[in-house]
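In response to the reviewer comment on reproducibility (Comment 2.3), we provide here a single inverse folding case reported in full, input and output, so that an independent group could reproduce the run without further information from us. The structure tokens appear first.
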């Protein structure tokens, strides 16, 4: 169920808010959990089983770490685990290639902070969540690549039967990349002593399944909402700001992201694009993915405010970045900080020497690329970003960036990001390389004459040109939703109301309305 749909806006959301607010405080989480499971299971009820499995595993692991399985333990407050000094865990067993033996030795190693049982609970949580994610997201990918490799070996050696023939086709459950990371971070934070274990299963289920951020983030850590689950406030100001977030997010999605996405799809699907058309198309995609995903985050934050929760900012004007390093401080902040705290630091971070730091940066971004999708395109996308992060880290303050005017640094960074978005959008590697060639002028200025005329007639219509210009103005010239909604003056309230009304009207006429981050 998409936020930008009539079903959600006119039926599910009003009913959910009425049920949520009429219930007493002690029943709100139960109602919100049920509503979230209905929201998530609308497309496929079987997906609910997977989310519940992940929820149960991490709930049990959290209790296991705090020794809650004796009869007397349930009558006492849950003990808070001592926080582990960062130096004790920032280079754990996860940085070794021989992973299983190192994990076993790590579990058996005497530790003044954690018992072997607590370590086992942590390993169970991590392995089970990554196994669910790996199977459902990468089974088809690895099977296809294995069969391709087996086919090559069969042709070379003249043998048969090396490929794997199966009728099993795995469907990717919505949001599995988000809720597994979110649920897993709970058990890791409890183990580190950075979050308190929770005994109420309904409250924990509510945290994992909360529908505002369930299928496309932002990734909410338990420590960010722990206190809010126990006690949060409901104010008119918070509700009004939540409505403003939803209205502006819906406007960004319906009024800007969708037409820009139409431009991108038309150009990318055309083939043989010329220099001008290819740049126009990838700029359209850069606007589509930014306004699409930031719109979802805005609406998630707004829905959270209406429900009494305060979620952190997930986007901070990323196309204002003057380097790729800065870009990753501004783009999808909840994912980049998750990768930093739960992958980059345990791999050793920047404490194991320069070379290891560069390797860690590249490896984290490679895995971040794979997190987005099971395709070599995403691996290359992550490799480019990882390579740029390592390069900028190596250059330090003497980087060529430092000698350029700030606007030029922003332009260069945006151009690099545009080239990486090609691998994010194109269907396969060969198409990505062909499109990058078009951006470099290998197909000439206009590409195929006949095709260029037809393509131009589709993507340079006044409506699409106007929306692309508006997208640029909003991106580089207007305040962020986070800042705009901080103080709702009468003039700003009028903008919010008119944006909501116009978006709902346009929504009734649009047939092109995907939330592209649903596929990740």
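Designed residues, in position order:
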């Amino acid at each position: 169920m998409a936020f930008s749909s009539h079903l959600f806006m006119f039926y599910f959301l009003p009913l959910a808010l009425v049920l949520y607010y009429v219930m007493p405080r002690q029943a709100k989480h139960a109602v919100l959990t049920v509503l979230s499971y209905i929201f998530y299971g609308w497309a496929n009820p079987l997906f609910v089983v997977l989310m519940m499995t992940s929820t149960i595993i991490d709930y049990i692991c959290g209790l296991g770490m705090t020794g809650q399985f004796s009869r007397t333990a349930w009558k006492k407050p849950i003990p808070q685990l001592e926080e582990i000094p960062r130096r004790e865990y920032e280079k754990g067993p996860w940085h070794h290639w021989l992973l299983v033996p190192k994990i076993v030795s790590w579990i058996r190693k005497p530790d003044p902070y954690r018992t072997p049982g607590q370590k086992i609970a942590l390993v169970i949580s991590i392995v089970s969540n990554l196994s669910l994610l790996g199977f459902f997201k990468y089974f088809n990918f690895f099977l296809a690549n294995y069969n391709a490799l087996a086919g090559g070996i069969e042709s070379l050696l003249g043998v048969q039967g090396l490929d794997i023939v199966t009728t099993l086709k795995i469907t990717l459950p919505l949001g599995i990349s988000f809720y597994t990371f979110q649920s897993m971070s709970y058990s890791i934070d409890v183990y580190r002593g950075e979050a308190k274990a929770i005994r109420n299963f309904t409250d924990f289920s509510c945290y994992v399944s909360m529908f505002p951020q369930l299928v496309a983030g932002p990734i909410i850590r338990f420590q960010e909402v722990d206190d809010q689950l126990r006690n949060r406030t409901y104010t008119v100001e918070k509700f009004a700001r939540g409505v403003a977030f939803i209205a502006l997010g819906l406007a960004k999605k319906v009024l800007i992201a969708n037409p820009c996405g139409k431009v991108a799809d038309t150009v990318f699907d055309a083939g043989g694009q010329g220099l001008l058309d290819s740049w126009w198309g990838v700029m359209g995609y850069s606007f589509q993915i930014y306004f699409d995903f930031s719109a979802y985050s805005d609406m998630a934050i707004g829905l959270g405010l209406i429900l009494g929760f305060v979620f952190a900012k997930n986007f901070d004007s990323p196309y204002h970045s003057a380097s790729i390093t800065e870009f990753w401080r501004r783009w999808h902040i909840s994912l980049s900080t998750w990768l930093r705290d739960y992958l980059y630091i345990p791999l050793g971070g920047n404490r194991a020497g320069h070379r290891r730091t560069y390797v860690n940066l590249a490896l984290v971004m490679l895995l971040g690329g794979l997190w987005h999708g099971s395709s070599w395109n995403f691996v290359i996308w992550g490799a480019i970003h990882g390579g740029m992060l390592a390069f900028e880290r190596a250059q330090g303050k003497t980087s060529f960036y430092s000698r350029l005017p700030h606007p030029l640094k922003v332009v260069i960074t945006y151009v690099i990001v545009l080239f990486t978005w090609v691998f994010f959008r194109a269907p396969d590697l060969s198409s990505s390389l062909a499109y990058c060639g078009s951006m470099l002028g290998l197909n000439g200025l206009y590409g195929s004459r006949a095709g260029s005329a037809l393509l131009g007639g589709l993507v340079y219509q006044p409506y699409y040109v106007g929306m692309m210009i508006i997208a640029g103005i909003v991106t580089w010239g207007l305040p962020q939703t986070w800042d705009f909604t901080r103080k709702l003056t009468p003039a700003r309230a009028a903008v919010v109301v008119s944006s909501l009304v116009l978006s709902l009207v346009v929504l009734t006429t649009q047939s092109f309305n995907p939330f592209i981050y649903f596929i990740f």
